[in-house]
Amino acid sequence: MTDARPPRFDDDFRQALDDLFAWRRDVRRFRADPVDEALLRESLAAAHRSPSVGNSQPWRFVRVADPARRAGVVASFERCNADAALRYDDETQARYRALKLAGLREAPVHLAVFCDDATEAGHGLGRATMPEMLRYSVVGAVQTFWLAARARGLGTGWVSILEPARIGTLLDVPESWHLVAYLCVGLPVEEHADPELVRHGWQAQDATAARLFER
């Protein structure tokens, strides 16, 4: 046990943290430059310090480097994206097809993030009534990685237009691993404070009013 004193976070730090939240964006346009391995490892180390239900740490990060497997992921995205477009009427479908929804071909780093539903770490504490807390814990680790990467100049894009079971098969992971996120990571071509879907006319910017309800 250590008795190290906790850090004090001043106004400058809080402002910088707010700026990080504001400039954390889903990136779809990546430069071809390779990612500095040290920066990637530092971001992953931050993710591993995320909170988890019962200290179960159920996240499993898989770096996808094999070209054939990457091609399989791209094919899955293209199938799902084509199907998704058909859900809209003609005018909305045209706008949907014009959006860039993934940087799978350009991103130098692909990370598939799984939840190990069979993990014994934590001895099941805190999830008897809410077993989904395991996967929520993985989402927290993804968010931590995302912010840590952004603070180091790296962009991250979360691709959800995929077939989870197919990705698990492509990457040859245990059956107990459930895909939670597929991340594209690299240096962004451009940076913006506003969401891409707002910038390209898919939806209007939401009001900034807090979504807090009293009972």
UniProtKB/TrEMBL annotation:
Q: Which SUPFAM superfamilies match?
A: FMN-dependent nitroreductase-like
Domain (Nitroreductase) spans 22-186
What top-level branch of life does the organism fall under?
Bacteria
Gene3D superfamilies (alphabetical): NADH Oxidase
Q: Give one Pfam hit by family name.
A: Nitroreductase
UniProt-listed InterPro entries: BluB (IPR012825), Nitroreductase (IPR029479), Nitroreductase-like (IPR000415), Nitroreductase/BluB (IPR050627)
The family database entries (NCBIfam families) matched by this protein are listed as: BluB (TIGR02476)
> Cross-referenced PANTHER family, in alphabetical order?
NAD(P)H NITROREDUCTASE RV3131-RELATED, NADPH NITROREDUCTASE
The name this protein goes by in its record = 5,6-dimethylbenzimidazole synthase
